[in-house]
Amino acid sequence: MSKAKLINFVYLVSPKHKATGRTKHFLGAEQMAEPYQLKIIQYPADSGYYLIYLDKNGNELTDTYHETLQKAFEQAQWEFSVEPREWKKA
Asked: Which residue, 1, 21, 28, 76, is most buried by CB atoms nearer than 10 A?
């Protein structure tokens, strides 16, 4: 697969960025730990966007696929109250 392009990122360090509980991710039978950072990436041959969930060490915990960049932003807002203005451009 071609190398992904980093589009946007945000660190979930503010107290307001705690998980809302509206979505739960599982690794096997255990609930995934809260991520420290979110990134949005896109692969050259793919029109969609991936919202990547990372731990403090930069390890990927999981990802979600979104048809548009706006939908990826909305997912982050739904899960972690991340406002559009908080995202940093790569």
From this structure: 76
